Recover the amino acids of this structure.
């Protein structure tokens, strides 16, 4: 009952702050104990989060001042493993973006997911060597897609980017990878010895300069709620074609419907307890 009251108070305060911050953004340290992902990817939290060191073997964390480099121990290990493979194949320096906040939870803006420490953004921009601290603060994205033309940017997209996505997708810990539909199209066009991993690569708007890795709920994390498995097949046929933008109707006839803002759902009770520790 007390936890429910706390959450209602937080919901009441958020509109007064013009959604500038969420209570999770004021927490600067993870909780103690073993890593545990709680709730769903878009309504949950992270207990016992681990931080990804800002620089390691073949990778760097960007924009570390935002404090979004915490994750479940499985995600931290996955990123170490992926960067090691990337270096061995000489694909370039891996640039890691947002993972989660110290105890996960909801962002005020920018992400609906990344709440359980099982999501991470990895940029498709591969550098030849480590970037300076100054460069890492404000790294500029390298677009892989000409958005308006709905076609790949041949100057930026290449074999290295395709191999990087494949390296991540073949890992058994990975449940899904989100990329722009045009990037998915490029991956589908390539000849792969094994195409099974393409099922995990899901088209989603916005992912035109990075890809979003999502891990399965870890074994033993009974409070972690898994997402429904992707549809069968490689997703390269009618499903992918359905993402291609349709011609817009006459603007004069198109009516704008104001969307009503929804209050975020109440997090699991275990997450509310993490806010109070």
């Amino acid at each position: 009952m007390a936890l429910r009251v706390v959450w209602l108070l937080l919901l009441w305060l958020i509109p007064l702050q013009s959604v500038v911050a969420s209570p999770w953004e004021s927490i600067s340290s993870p909780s103690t104990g073993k890593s545990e992902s709680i709730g769903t990817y878009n309504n949950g939290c992270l207990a016992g989060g681990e931080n990804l060191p800002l620089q390691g073997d073949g990778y760097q964390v960007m924009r570390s001042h935002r404090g979004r480099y915490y994750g479940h121990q499985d995600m931290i290990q996955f990123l170490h493993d992926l960067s090691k493979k990337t270096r061995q194949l000489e694909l370039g320096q891996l640039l890691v973006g947002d993972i989660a906040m110290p105890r996960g939870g909801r962002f005020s803006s920018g992400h609906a997911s990344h709440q359980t420490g099982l999501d991470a953004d990895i940029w498709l921009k591969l550098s030849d060597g480590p970037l300076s601290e100054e460069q890492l603060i404000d790294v500029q994205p390298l677009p892989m897609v000409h958005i308006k033309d709905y076609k790949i940017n041949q100057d930026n997209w290449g074999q290295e980017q395709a191999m990087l996505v494949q390296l991540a997708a073949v890992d058994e810990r990975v449940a899904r990878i989100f990329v722009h539909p045009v990037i998915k199209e490029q991956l589908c066009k390539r000849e792969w010895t094994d195409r099974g991993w393409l099922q995990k690569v899901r088209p989603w708007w916005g992912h035109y300069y990075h890809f979003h890795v999502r891990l399965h709920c870890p074994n033993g994390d009974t409070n972690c709620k898994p997402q429904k498995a992707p549809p069968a097949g490689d997703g390269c046929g009618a499903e992918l074609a359905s993402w291609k933008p349709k011609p817009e109707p006459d603007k004069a006839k198109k009516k704008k419907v104001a969307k009503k803002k929804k209050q975020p759902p109440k997090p699991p009770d275990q997450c509310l307890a993490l806010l109070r520790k």
